[in-house]
Design a protein that fits this description.
single chain; six-stranded antiparallel sheet; five-stranded parallel sheet; 15 helices; globular
Length: 466
């Protein structure tokens, strides 16, 4: 068995650490933020400070892929979440009224998932990690660099541990970077003399305005959880313990949206959206929380078929991160951690093979989530910009329109769409299934789903101006 250091004690770092510890490795998780998780869910939300996670109190969602990985790799984690007050979500309940086939399918349960607010989820995961006999969680320890050892590949730096701000060197057979989108790993690798990783980066161009609520029961889901509405979008998410969130987001360059920081303006706008207005029927538990400056970034440490470093791998947002409006980050990160566990089982003591195998699995199983999200972001921001300028928006992707249209009529296409939304499958995988293309084509002449009802651009500006 091996010694493994995980840098970053967030959800993905802790889950990856527990998966690796489950295989008998001795895992040390180092987290820079000093405060541990409070003992109650209320305290986790009210008083837990995670300065290293800028989006700690922004909306988060878990999807069926998270639950599938957790149930397979970390049995009992879903039950812990439910015990902490997290809630079940079932996108099959109800089916769209336009679908005549209402018969359940034997595997419908796998589309259901459990979700909650980020602080509560992280507190649950932290409690599970702290109980694991082969995992040590050290808080208040900031990693400042990597320790190099004898090369496993000629001319390629090999990592054998980490250095901390306190001057400590912690040796490891593998260092896992789970420090999120703010990871300094580019500087760490440069200090070792490594070739630069392949990096793609751009500003997604979105700004988010969110408010949290509580009430005696969760609001009914009438429309889509992520609903495009002209030059803005609305995101409505259930939380834990009778809480939920409402988010309005749009382009950062859309200056009038800054008025949404005012709770009265926020309320006025959401009230004008018929499918979301009832999500305001609760007691606000926060002001309007704003967030912007979210970069889409992708890092690959295998360049031209060769690793730039061995003994070190990034996972989750430290590997790739996107606009968070689709709520996929933690679910995709969980899938990535699972691929690391699988690669480590076969290759941990062969450093070059480990990096190569993990990179190959990442590109095959996880990177398509990033690519598809980037394409969706670019299309949506272009549509928003055009509507803001009073110009016709670019035509939508006909394949996406065809899938959405068919899903409103065909029960199995609808389930395929839900698999895509909940990260169980990629669009390409769903469409490649026997008979799926024919099912979608059957509704080629059907009208597309109607747009989400709500104010047009002029109405939006009037609501923002008061």
């Amino acid at each position: 068995m091996a010694a493994i250091v995980v840098c970053g004690g967030g959800v993905i770092g802790l889950c990856a650490g527990m998966m690796l510890a489950e295989d008998g490795h001795e895992v040390t998780v180092l987290e820079a933020d000093p405060d541990g998780a409070p003992p109650t869910t209320a305290a986790a939300w009210d008083s837990w400070n995670r300065h290293g996670v800028a989006q700690f109190r922004q909306p988060h969602n878990l999807f069926a892929r998270f639950r599938a990985v957790a149930d397979a790799e970390l049995p009992g984690l879903t039950d812990r979440m439910l015990a902490a007050g997290c809630t079940w979500v079932d996108y099959l309940d109800p089916l769209p009224p336009s679908i005549e086939d209402r018969e359940p399918r034997p595997d419908d349960d796998r589309i259901r998932f459990v979700t909650g607010r980020r602080p509560v989820l992280e507190a649950v995961v932290a409690a599970a990690a702290e109980e694991h006999p082969r995992l040590t969680l050290r808080r208040g320890v900031r990693v400042t660099g990597l320790v190099a050892g004898a090369a496993a590949l000629p001319g390629v730096p090999h990592v054998v541990g980490v250095r901390t701000a306190g001057g400590e060197e912690i040796r490891a057979d593998l260092v896992v970077d789970a420090m999120g989108r703010r990871t300094p790993n580019a500087d760490w690798l440069a200090e070792l003399g490594a070739r630069p990783a392949h990096v793609e980066s751009e500003d997604s161009g979105f700004v988010y305005y969110t408010r949290y609520f509580t009430g005696p029961e969760l609001p009914r889901r009438i429309g889509r959880s992520l609903a495009p509405l002209g030059s803005i979008s609305l995101l409505t998410l259930p939380g834990d313990n009778d809480t939920w969130s409402v988010t309005v987001f749009g382009p950062t360059r859309d200056a009038p949206l800054k008025a949404l920081r005012d709770p009265d303006v926020f309320t006025r706008l959401v009230t004008a959206c018929p499918l979301q207005a009832h999500w305001l029927d609760g007691k606000p538990i926060t002001d309007v929380l704003a967030m912007a400056g979210i970069l889409d970034r992708y890092r690959r440490i295998v360049v031209d078929g060769e690793p730039v470093v061995t003994g070190f791998v990034p996972i989750g947002d430290a590997w790739a991160c996107t606009n968070p409006s689709a709520g996929r980050g933690i679910s995709v990160g969980m899938a990535h951690a699972q691929q690391l566990r699988l690669a480590a089982r076969d290759h941990l003591h062969r450093p070059a093979e480990l990096v190569g195998a993990f990179d190959e699995a990442t590109e095959r199983e996880v990177t398509p989530f990033f690519r598809n999200q980037i394409a969706a972001d670019r299309a949506r921001i272009a549509e928003m910009d055009a509507l803001r300028a009073g110009e016709p928006p670019p035509p939508p992707d006909p394949r996406q329109v065809g899938l959405l249209t068919a899903a409103m009529h065909d029960a199995d296409v609808f389930r395929g769409l839900l698999e895509i939304i909940t990260c169980l499958a990629q669009p390409q995988q769903v469409m490649a299934r026997p008979g799926m293309a024919e099912r979608v084509a059957r509704f080629a002449d059907a009208p597309p789903p109607p747009p989400t009802p709500g104010p047009d651009r002029a109405g939006l500006l009037a609501l923002l101006a008061g």
